[in-house]
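Q: I'm teaching a short session on how sequence maps to structure, and I want students to see two examples side by side rather than one. Could you give me a first protein with its sequence written out and its structure tokens following it? Keep the formatting plain so it prints cleanly on a handout.
A: Of course. Example one:
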Amino acid sequence: VTLKTSWTNPPILTVICWANVMPPVTILPSQLTLPRPPLPNHTPFTITIQNATTNHMVLSDPSVNAKDVKVELREIQPGHYFNALLTFPPDFEVPSGEHVEFTAKTSLPKYPLITVPVIQLPKPLMARPHPAAVPRLLPVPPQRHAQAP
């Protein structure tokens, strides 16, 4: 922004401005990453949903499309700040080839559905040792005794 002044030194002032524009709806984390299977205990995760619009937001029908995952929705600041608490059961494992996600409907027409993917770190592969790395017993060659001339 430049401003003209009645001063002779400086006749123009320059003011640097910046703004941080918040997105209308923020979801953190944008993806849940579960540890390697199997989970040893009930494993909780929290998803934070923040509405920065001037309209109140209502969330409904929170769910995870996987068996035995518990979902609880808490409204921290009415219409603007929510926590979705997800609890995964012991031994939970994302089935191979399936897409697991958390979803919740919103009352905002521009953002009718919130979706958060759930991924899981892969099981460690059982590495087979290279054949050269496997210890082997080799026969001991017979000893030759030197004979006297």
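Q: Perfect. Now a second example for contrast.
A: Example two:
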Amino acid sequence: MAKTDTIPSPRLKDEYKKSYQKELVKELGLNNIHEAPRLEKIVVSSGVGRNRDDKRFQEIVSNTLTKITGQKPVGRIAKKSIAGFKIRAGMGAPIGHSVTLRGARMYEFLDRLVNVAMPRIRDFHGAGAKGFDRSGNYSLGITEQSIFPELGFEDTAILHGLQVTFVIDNKNSTHSRALLEKFGMPFEKKG
């Protein structure tokens, strides 16, 4: 007899379905549960900057994103030529790497980011509240990858930053912030 292992649903996804969605409808004064803001995807990216010709640095960035997200990153090629940065459109070496997370991996990454990685940031006073765009999506910059426990000493020997973008289906940034606060995102206190 073959044993079938069922993969448990992510904790934050279950919490969203059970309680967060209903709470958001009440708190935001929405008409029904389908108007509640929901997380569509998380994009984790890292630019390579001046090190675009350094294959070792490219490999470190790629390996970091793979270990943090559990998914292989895609190399991003320049779309525009920028003379000041010595970048030509379509040049061979990637100018950055990115991973798009959806479904279970998205919720697992969010859970680890908020509950494990962010508390490890030194002198952390909360995530900046100015990271919302007009559509209500939120971008968070992380200055060094060493806050993630998945990475060993070898992976953090050369430091680089990360950009985490939360793409949220909603009406405005107030609704997005309410959703992220439900998931445990520690925003900085005003005043």
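Q: What should students look for in example two?
A: Point them to this: Residues 11-28 form the longest helix (18 residues). Also worth mentioning: DSSP finds four helices and five strands in the chain.
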